[in-house]
Design goal:
Largest sheet: none
Strand content: under 5%
Order of helices and strands: HHHHHHH
Length: 169
């Protein structure tokens, strides 16, 4: 009985690992979508309101989902601490610290640190549009990877669990 219970637990754990790996691919796509949508809001806020950047960041931190909300909240604080750290360095640190965002998604956001708050609205808008298109390309690639590898991870988890059950019994 204990052997059977152990085999079932091993199979369930293996299946869970495969399914969670596949789910992580989906979360990666959603994070990139959230960042792209947040940049669209940032572009509109800068263009329409013309409010100071810390105010815009604070408003967007309340209106966007993760990971963009955390990025904007920390960016607002970084704007208020410019005497200790220049904004481009703070932005780079914050973008590098984004968890769960693929490398190419972070690379798409990095150039914004050099532009935000430093150039006229049109220059900022163009930089945001370039970052959004790079994020969109990263999202498409992540979606393709999810479609291709998601099923592989699921199948590996399930068949690996079945194989281990056979070995244990």
């Amino acid at each position: 009985m204990i052997r059977l219970l152990g085999a079932v637990l091993v199979a369930a754990a293996s299946a869970w690992l495969g399914l969670s790996a596949a789910a992580e691919l989906g979360r990666r796509v959603r994070r990139l979508e959230a960042l792209s949508a947040a940049l669209e809001l940032l572009e509109r806020e800068l263009w329409e309101r013309g409010a100071p950047l810390p105010e815009v960041f604070q408003a967007l931190a309340r209106r966007t989902g993760e990971p963009a909300a955390a990025l904007f909240a920390h960016s607002a604080r970084a704007c208020l601490a410019l005497d200790r750290e220049p904004f481009p360095a703070a932005w780079r640190r914050l973008v590098d610290g984004l968890e769960g965002v693929p490398r190419e998604g972070r690379a798409a956001l990095l150039p914004l640190g050099e532009v935000l708050g430093r150039y006229e609205a049109q220059g900022q808008r163009e930089a945001i549009a370039q970052s959004r298109s790079a994020l969109e390309r990263a999202r498409r690639r992540a979606e393709e990877e999810k479609a291709r590898m998601g099923r592989v991870y699921q199948a590996l988890g399930l068949t690996g669990g079945g194989f281990l059950v056979i070995l244990l019994l």
